[in-house]
């Protein structure tokens, strides 16, 4: 299937190889999430009178309703069907874009009239002529059916509570089901109390199931079912906001509720009623927290504006092709993954530099300006200051993507079981993501890679390696002095030691050495002071990777550990190890959804972590061996 240059450019931005074949491009399009596919369809929707131009790109059968009997309105159970572009059976999830619906109709009509497709919406190889008048009649009937069902959906949501002008606006602008629920609920909640309800009594407002069982309420319900509190401070974190505000999750409202509850209420939200809507969604979530898996499937179909089948299996299949069901379950999956990710005890925090702005997976250069020789005396009457010279020193590294996935199929729905979404699965995947950073960092400490000057990170020439130095008062003082006494171009750089990093086998020794307020000499032959100069001077970080060894996630190389080697790190984190995260991820795992293909019905989630680590400078690190 040929696509327009604009469509191919968009697919490349989403990650497709620019040199991909037509077959590969078709497969990539079929795998797009609903939101991305809707944008892909929008880009290629324009049709020139001769059939050329942007509209010549096909849809690669991403749930295209034309794949079926033209009189049937499409196969409602077609996997991946999302109603993108307003072409679905019933009110589509097209963001209220009626023009997209018109373009979809005109594109199909053009293909029929030109004989480019046969009666099943496939490339035509049958020489049997097609009656253009019959084709046009069928398409007009189909188009009117879509409009009719959209109108029925809007009127069913409005009832007697929504003003007629709002209903007419929804019909005129072709609002999607989410906007209908949101705007109609706002109208109902802001209606003045009926006359005769004075004396301090509030007028009674009727509340329909359709008006209260919104996508937001179901997202909150699934979180409650999984043991989350919707007021949890976790939702205020940078990582949660990055994960929940993604297009295929659409649960950013939860982070806003958490911010409001924390006292950070935005004035704009108060003025336009958005804060009340967020709070209402949170409260409604408790009504549906006891729902079964099949209940969530049924409501996802309703939210997508489709008819709910009576057969249980058909209902599951149809639900799994909706964007609503993906959004509901992805909310819980994202937060379970994030909770486990944040729960990992990462001993590298604080002494590694974090770079949250790595743009891509290409090689990154990290240069630094070495200390110059300092300012020189300017002679009396001197016209110009002496130049201060610097030299560039550059280290290079690349981030990489690390991923894992799991699935949820129709058997899990039938058994009312989260199956692969059990806490054990999500917790383990979140923990694996959380362990990537310390695995990378300790692989550097133990592996001792070469630096830009061709010498190992810890090397005698670098002044940051001490041998035969068991952890103790005198050896700790030696390591501290070695770091702070470093010079560059004759200048002291005062790389003061701040962190003491030890294997678990030395944790007790290190903490007693640092936390004791005084020390005493075992022998009485020499008079010594009792004050402990190391008291509270360093932060102790211990990790079993230093004892047991660690496998480098980047290279797969195993580095053996030691129970006696220990390290020091400077408070100036830019002089040590840098951990880079891809821009826009918030330093958190990134979840992607997909639909199972072949003989399996279901959905899956892929957890991605985009990061890398590199020793940028040896001056901020010290190693002592015994």
From TrEMBL:
Superkingdom of the source species: Bacteria
Bias (Polar residues) ranges: 517-532
Compositional bias ranges of the Gly residues kind: 82-98
Residues covered by region (Disordered): 40-101, 115-137, 517-547
Annotated signal peptide: none
Protein name: Mu-like prophage major head subunit gpT
Organism: Crateriforma conspicua
Taxonomy of the source species: Bacteria, Pseudomonadati, Planctomycetota, Planctomycetia, Planctomycetales
């Amino acid at each position: 299937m040929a696509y327009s240059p604009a469509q191919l450019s968009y697919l490349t931005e989403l990650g497709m190889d620019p040199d991909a074949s037509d077959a590969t491009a078709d497969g990539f399009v079929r795998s797009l999430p609903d939101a991305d596919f809707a944008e892909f369809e929008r880009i290629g929707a324009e049709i020139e009178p001769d059939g050329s131009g942007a509209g010549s790109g096909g849809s690669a059968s991403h749930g295209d309703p034309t794949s079926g009997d033209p009189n049937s309105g499409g196969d409602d159970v077609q996997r991946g069907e999302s109603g993108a572009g307003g072409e679905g059976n019933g009110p589509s999830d097209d963001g209220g874009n009626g023009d997209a619906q018109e373009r979809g109709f005109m594109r199909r009509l053009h293909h029929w009239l030109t004989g480019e497709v046969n009666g099943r919406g496939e490339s035509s190889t049958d020489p049997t002529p097609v009656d253009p008048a019959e084709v046009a009649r069928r398409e007009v009937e189909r188009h009117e059916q879509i409009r009719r069902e959209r109108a029925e959906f809007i009127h069913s949501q409005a009832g007697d509570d929504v003003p007629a002008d709002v209903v007419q606006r929804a019909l005129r602008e072709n609002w999607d089901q989410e906007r209908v629920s949101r705007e109609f609920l706002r109208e109902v909640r802001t209606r003045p109390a009926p006359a005769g309800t004075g004396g301090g009594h509030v007028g009674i407002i009727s509340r329909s199931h359709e008006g209260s069982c919104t996508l937001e309420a179901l997202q909150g319900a699934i979180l409650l079912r999984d043991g989350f509190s919707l007021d949890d401070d976790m939702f205020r974190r940078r990582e949660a906001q990055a994960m929940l505000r993604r297009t295929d999750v659409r649960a950013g409202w939860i982070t806003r509720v958490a911010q409001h509850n924390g006292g950070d209420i935005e004035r704009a939200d108060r003025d336009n009623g958005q804060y009340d809507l967020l709070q209402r969604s949170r409260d409604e979530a408790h009504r549906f927290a006891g729902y079964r898996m099949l209940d969530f499937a049924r409501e996802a179909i309703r939210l997508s504006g489709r008819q709910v089948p009576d057969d249980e299996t058909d209902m599951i299949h149809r639900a799994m092709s909706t964007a609503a069901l993906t959004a509901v379950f992805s909310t819980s999956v994202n937060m379970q993954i994030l909770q486990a990710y944040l729960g990992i005890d990462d001993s590298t925090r604080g002494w590694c530099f974090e770079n949250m702005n790595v743009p891509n997976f290409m090689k990154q250069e990290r240069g630094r300006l070495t200390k110059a020789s300092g300012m020189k005396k300017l002679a009396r009457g001197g016209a110009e200051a002496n130049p201060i010279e610097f030299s560039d020193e550059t280290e290079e590294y690349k981030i990489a993507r690390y991923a894992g996935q799991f699935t949820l199929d129709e058997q899990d729905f039938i058994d009312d079981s989260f199956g692969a979404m059990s806490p054990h699965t999500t917790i383990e995947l979140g923990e694996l993501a959380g362990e990537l950073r310390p695995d990378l960092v300790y692989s550097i400490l133990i592996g001792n890679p070469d630096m830009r000057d061709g010498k190992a990170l810890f090397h005698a020439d670098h002044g940051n390696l001490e041998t035969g130095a068991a952890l103790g008062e005198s050896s700790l003082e030696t390591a501290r002095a070695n770091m702070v006494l470093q010079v560059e171009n004759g200048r002291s750089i005062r790389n003061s030691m701040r962190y003491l990093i030890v294997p678990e086998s030395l944790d007790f020794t290190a903490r007693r050495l640092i936390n004791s307020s005084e020390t005493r000499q075992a022998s009485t032959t020499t008079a010594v002071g009792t004050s402990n100069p190391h008291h509270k001077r360093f932060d102790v970080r211990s990790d079993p990777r230093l004892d047991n060894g660690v496998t480098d996630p980047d290279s797969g190389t195993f580095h053996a550990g030691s129970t006696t080697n220990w390290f020091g790190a400077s408070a100036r984190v830019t002089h040590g190890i840098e951990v880079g995260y891809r821009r826009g991820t918030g330093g958190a795992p990134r979840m992607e959804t997909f639909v199972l293909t072949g003989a399996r019905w279901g959905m899956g989630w892929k957890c991605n972590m985009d990061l890398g680590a590199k020793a940028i400078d040896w001056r901020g690190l010290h190693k002592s061996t015994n």
